[in-house]
Amino acid sequence: MPTSMKALGLDGLSVEDRIELAGEIWDSVEREIESSPLTEAQRAELERRLADSNARPDDVVPWEDVKARALARSRR
């Protein structure tokens, strides 16, 4: 199956239509992922990370701080 924009004929769409299509594709992927059960290895890793986070609450960095630092670095 062709996977390039040109091969699929998407390169002729307007920017607005491509953005809308990208959103629809993302939503379909999200629905599929949400309906897929976690593997035991994934579940165990999530449990390990949660336990680590709970054991060391002062080592947790809020998402807003991480995002701000990443954006600041990208602007250099």
Class from helix and strand fractions: mainly alpha
Portion of residues in helices? Answer: 55-70%
- Intertermini distance: 41 Å
Strand content: under 5%
Please, what is the average pLDDT?
Answer: 93
- Our Rg estimate from Cα atoms comes to 20 Å
Helix-strand pattern: HHHH
> What count of helical segments does DSSP give?
4
Number of domains: 1
Low-confidence stretches: none
Number of beta strands:
0
Q: Give the overall silhouette.
A: flat
Sheet with the most strands, sense and barrel status: none
Structure description:
- The structure is a single chain.
- The chain has 76 residues and is an all-alpha fold.
- It has one domain (5-74).
- It contains four helices and no strands.
- It has helices spanning 5-8, 15-35, 40-55, 63-74.
Defining traits:
mainly alpha, 4 helices, flat
Write the layout of secondary structure elements.
Elements: H1 5-8, H2 15-35, H3 40-55, H4 63-74
Give a short synopsis of this structure.
The chain has 76 residues and is mostly helical.
